[in-house]
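Our consortium's second objective concerns turning raw sequence data into structural hypotheses that experimental partners can test. To show how far this objective has progressed, the report includes one record in full. It was chosen at random from the queue rather than selected for favorable results. The single chain below, 165 residues long, was entered without modification.
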Amino acid sequence: MKQICKLAIVATIIVSSITACRPEKKELGPKANQVDGISSSTWILSKVDQIDVNVQLAFVESDTLLNVTDAYIDGAPMEIAFGKDGAYTITPGAGSNLFKNTAGKWNFDNNEYPSYITFDAASTTENNMKLIRPVRPQDNFLSLKYNKICGGKRTVSYHLTYTRK
């Protein structure tokens, strides 16, 4: 009987020591607002990667990625400012030729989980750019994908990386 009591005490000590060593669960906190992440900031074009989309031997698009920042950003890079009211303005510079207007309206395709930014929606100059990664208020980079279309076909893509000013 004494041995059973000793075993029960040892088992209780072992079980309580194992459960006491578990780390506390951490909370992720509130979901980041994508509109707040991009708006009320000015973004400067800092990197340009070119992807040849017509290479047949590539397994994934990134296999043909080439950093063309030095050739593309010759002089002052462009800046883009997004307002919470849905307005944007572009300060001309290297890279601004990818945008049809220097000012207009912008919006996400979905404010909760955006995958595209639309510039000048429902106009003749509408321009959609894919978000490569989400942009939260704490992020310092905005990455967009621009597809160059020639003759109705995508000929080349650019990954444009902007740094928060």
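The partners drew two points from this record. Residues 2-20 form the longest helix (19 residues). The mean pLDDT is 84. Both points have been shared with the crystallography group to help prioritize constructs.
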